[in-house]
Amino acid sequence: MRVLYFAWVRQRVGMAEEEVAPPETVRDVAGLIAWLSARSPGHASAFANPRTIRAAVNQDFAGPDHPVAANDEIAFFPPVTGG
Amino acid sequence: MTPRIAIQEAPFDLGAESARLTAGRTDVGGLASFVGLCRADDGLAAMVLEHYPGMTERAIDRIAQEAAGRWPLLGCTVIHRVGRLPPGAPIVLVLTASSHRAAALESCAFLIDWLKTGAPFWKREEWADGTARWVEAKAEDDAATARWAPA
C-alpha cells in the first residue's frame, strides 16, 4: 500500500510517501489513520485531529469509512486551498 | 468538447489561450475568463503552491465535464500554476466558450468556485519576516461551491 502526504501533513510526518503493509484488521481510511498514527511521533502529530485531515483513495476523495486494500494509493492532506 | 487542463510553473498567456479556443470557428458568441492573482496581503513575500500530480488533473477534468453537462460549452481551459509565486503573479486561469454569454459566464464562475474546494492544491504563505504558514480552507469557499448544488 502506497501512502502519500501533502502540505502540512507531509511536513509533520516528515516524508512525502511511504510503502506500508498494515494488518488485515485495517479495513478503511479511519482504521489506516489510527494504525499510521502509531508509527512515529510525526505521524501521531499529523493525525492528532482527524477532522482536519482529508483523504483520497486511488486519486478520488474518500471518507473515513472508504475501504482500503493492499494495492491502493492512499493520500492524506489538509482541506484544499487552490484557485 | 475536450477541456484543456494544464498544471504548470510557467506563466500563462490570456490572449494566446483565448485565441486557442476561438481560432478557426464562428460559433462562439461568448468567451468568459477568470484570472486569479496572488494578492499582496501585508508583508507577504510569496505564495507557494503544491498539488497532487495525477489526482489534480483528474479532479479538474471531472469538474470540467460536469460544467459541460450543465452548460452548452464549445470550449473550456483551466490552467493552474504551482511553485513559488510572488505577489501580483497570476495563479489560475479559467476560460469558457459558448454560443451565448450566460452559459460562458455561469460556467466560468462554476469552475472557479469548484476549483477552490474540489481540486487538490495547497497554498503556503511566506512572509517578509521569514515565517511561513499554510493557508486554511475558508467556509465562504464551501458556501460558494454549495450554491451550484442542484436544487
From TrEMBL, chain A:
Keywords from the named record: Nucleotide-binding
Coiled-coil regions, chain positions? none
Instruction: Kindly name one Pfam family recorded for this protein.
Output: ThiS
Which InterPro entries does this UniProt record tie to the protein?
A: Beta-grasp_dom_sf, MOCS2A, Mopterin_synth/thiamin_S_b, ThiS/MoaD-like
This protein's source sits in the domain of life called: Bacteria
PANTHER family with a match to the protein in the record: MOLYBDOPTERIN SYNTHASE SULFUR CARRIER SUBUNIT
The record's similarity note reads:
Belongs to the MoaD family.
In Swiss-Prot or TrEMBL terms, this protein is called Molybdopterin synthase sulfur carrier subunit
From what organism does this protein derive? Belnapia mucosa
Q: What is the lineage of its organism?
A: Bacteria, Pseudomonadati, Pseudomonadota, Alphaproteobacteria, Acetobacterales
From TrEMBL, chain B:
| Coiled coil region boundaries | none
Q: Which domain of life is it from?
A: Bacteria
EC numbers for this chain: 2.8.1.12
Enzyme class comes to: transferase
Provide the alphabetized UniProt keywords. Molybdenum cofactor biosynthesis
So what does this thing catalyse? 2 [molybdopterin-synthase sulfur-carrier protein]-C-terminal-Gly-aminoethanethioate + cyclic pyranopterin phosphate + H2O = molybdopterin + 2 [molybdopterin-synthase sulfur-carrier protein]-C-terminal Gly-Gly + 2 H(+)
Family annotation (InterPro entries): MoaE_sf, Mopterin_biosynth_MoaE
Does the keyword section mention Lipid metabolism?
A: no
Q: In which pathway does it act?
A: Cofactor biosynthesis; molybdopterin biosynthesis
Complex formation = Heterotetramer of 2 MoaD subunits and 2 MoaE subunits. Also stable as homodimer. The enzyme changes between these two forms during catalysis.
Biological role: Converts molybdopterin precursor Z into molybdopterin. This requires the incorporation of two sulfur atoms into precursor Z to generate a dithiolene group. The sulfur is provided by MoaD.
Its family remark reads: Belongs to the MoaE family.
Q: What is this protein called?
A: Molybdopterin synthase catalytic subunit
- Species, as recorded: Belnapia mucosa
Q: What is the lineage of its organism?
A: Bacteria, Pseudomonadati, Pseudomonadota, Alphaproteobacteria, Acetobacterales
